[in-house]
Batch of 4 targets.
Target 1
Amino acid sequence: MSQARLSVVIPCYNEEKTLDSIVERVLAADRCGLGLEIVIVDDGSKDRSVAVMRDLAARHAEIVVVEHGINQGKGAALRSGFARARGDIVLVQDADLEYSPIDYPKLLKPFLDGRADVVFGSRFKGGEETRVLYFWHSVANRVLTLASNMFTDLNLTDMETCYKAFRREVIQRIRLVENRFGIEPEITAKIARLTPRPRVYEVGISYSGRTYEEGKKIGWRDGFRALYCILRYNLAR
């Protein structure tokens, strides 16, 4: 895949403080020689995110902008981004600074070697720098990953990770319906149910999580929704 093109999909909601920085880091991270497309989906932000996004698009030809008139959730933003992506590989990047594009070479290597169809970036695989934050969040992530693995028969360590990358034909085969953070277990379940099953890899990534004071959005209700989604999308036929 030496001539492969990369689409980075960035869902954005009220991220005016970090959007410019993360886009500049994405632009600087293309060290694998891939053509780069950045699809920013603003999900009805109430701050200046749209203005920042439009300014970035005016300065960088690689950027495509999609605007939702009202807030629908991360899942809805990802659906719009996946539908618009034109790259051979599609990678999800949050608009905050929790996940670093410096990890792109590791995420992309299994694709470029011709070994992978899907790659997850794990915050728990070890050997990488991780900010120490909420104990019960890490417990919930591991419990949800275990529950997901029991149904999908995958041996992931971090199902809830933002960093998921796909061959475009794989992610565009899946019909996604979740609007919020339930999109993570939904994607995982539906990837596992594809025939033939895609080749899934996992690599360790760094992680600099935010506190709620710094803008973290996911809450305990999303954890219960994730458990519901694990059951719904793995048991539905």
Target 2
Amino acid sequence: MGASMAPTLYRGSRPGAEGRARDWAEIQERMLVPLYDSVYDRLEVGTGTRLLGLGCGSGLALLLATARGAAVTGCEPDRHRLALARRRFRPEPSWGRRARPAGGTTLLDCLPDGSTPAIGDSDVVTAFDPAEPAAELRPALRAVAARARHGTAVVLAGWGPPERCSASRVLRVAERLAEPRGPASFGYGMRLSGRDDLENLAREAGLRPDGSGRVACPFGYPDLDSAVRGLLSTGLFDAAVAATDQQQVDKEIAEALHPYRRADGSIRMENVFRYVIARV
């Protein structure tokens, strides 16, 4: 997409958690669509599938599942992202007969625990957000392992190897600026990027790894402004902002993006994401 085609919604500042959630929904979330589609194809998500999305963000992955006929439940602790997800599923007259998803939708404001009814009803459970800290995700996965039916598929996603992800160069900014506040195991700003990280997380939760895959998810932005805002919306730079200031983080992200800037001003980074399918 050329700079001349950049939508006006990518312009201007959106400070605060609400603005960042909108940047996630409007700029960054779509970068992971190839991951969502690849997993749904492999697991044959469709009519009759009951899917539980852990950390469902602003709901795009759930929306794609409902388009295939699945009934979905999404859990998202970020109230601003959750509000945007609910807005996405709100019927609008212009949608006509497509206003209601085929299987139904439920959106919850927290990650599930052992009492969440959706766990036992689900055929597929997804944890797609590669920025979700393992420490926060682990209790929900343990609840799934304890309550879901035998054979339920649980999908965990993470970054591919840093050498296969152009974004790793930019995410190193987060690690460098966050020191010493950033966690020592952050790893180039990329959580769950090690070779066995996803399998180990699954096993720690009591799940059995049963296959994996890699998916190309290029990050493409119409201009530098939307690239900086999209990357900030992931939450991976929060510790860096706390340790320094927003202006410095913005400046250093922009500098790190220069090698990926094209003649028309657009930004493109080639990335590979990895997923593991585990079973209850």
Target 3
Amino acid sequence: MSEFIIKDEDLSSLKGKVVVLTGGSSGIGLATVKLLLSLGASVVSGDINPPAASESTETPAFLFVKTNVASWDDLTALFKKTKQHFGRIDCVFANAGIGPRANYLALETDDQGNLKEPSHELMEVGLRGLINTTSLAVHYIKDQPEGGSIVLMGSSTGLQPLRAVDYSAAKHGVLGFGRGFARIADVAGLPIRINTLMPSWTTSNVLPDLEGLMRGISHVPQPALVVARAAAYLMADASRQGDVIYVADGKYKEIEKTVLFPAYETIKGEGNPTDDEVLKRLLELPAN
């Protein structure tokens, strides 16, 4: 795998940039907010809750907009207010997420004894909200000559079987969306880079008292700042496009070009076109 390091100087180009991120009041999102502010960027955070008063975000370069990413109206307001306040949007980090919610093995019943549909709350926040955030980011960035960057928050759980099925399914979806969207952005000639993060266990609020739970099983999650630095790096490095970055034990590895796509090339059969190549040919057929 292509392992790399992130130096402080790699992030210096973020000074003066305007960054929108979701889920910026805790965990990885909050760590990213504080890092970006320290680098001289302006940051707009969309979250259901504001950052705690104890967090050092009181600066004219920071704007909080109350946002439920499952609401299209909230997301459109987040981007509109950012453009009105700072005049532009350079980078977007679609980060908001919640922990597992659904139980597919034991359906609940309502007061009348009728079976209730399993919860789709995690899908609404972690996948649908991310897709909508990305679509709005493209709308606001695509007409800027210098373009911009979009970073998607996936998870290492999107690379493996996981017994928290709704969380795993959402993160598998993020991976597929990021890989496909990076391809279509290239085809469309958009000046926008799309990259996806796939971090392993990280200090966050996805599970209540995560650090305490981790201590109970003698497993140490990586600090949120480790992943925040990866998010900032993908915003700053103009050479990164269509990458999938696995983050574990404080180390960074690019796995799209070194693991995932090469694995597909190996199993599809020699001489066979990729599914995307077949789709390209279909789209190029003359209309009847």
Target 4
Amino acid sequence: MLWVGLFKSGDWLLVILGLCVCAASLPLAWRAGVAEKAIIKRAGEVFSELDLARNRRIEVPGPLGMTTIVVEQRRVRVAADPGPRQYCVRQGWLTRPGEIAICAPNQVSVEIQGGSYDSLSY
């Protein structure tokens, strides 16, 4: 705590200004961009790429049966899946890049991708 006594008024002003700049930049550094497409994978391979600008419903075959994926208003969700626990259906609407719903028993996944990289991906 002896170093606090060495600070002058200009030093404190600089520290406060630096903290304000860091706090203001956090929302800009952590945003994920705009969701542009959904990547649907079956058994680890890309099954389809869907543009989120167009509403549609797609059926994806898997080992347990058909998984239904719905795109509406620039968002996507798994509407129905033959898996026993329905975790991917309960995931709800995916809207931001990087979000993913995985239907593990049926080997189907849906991931949102965007046009720009966020700070975590970079």
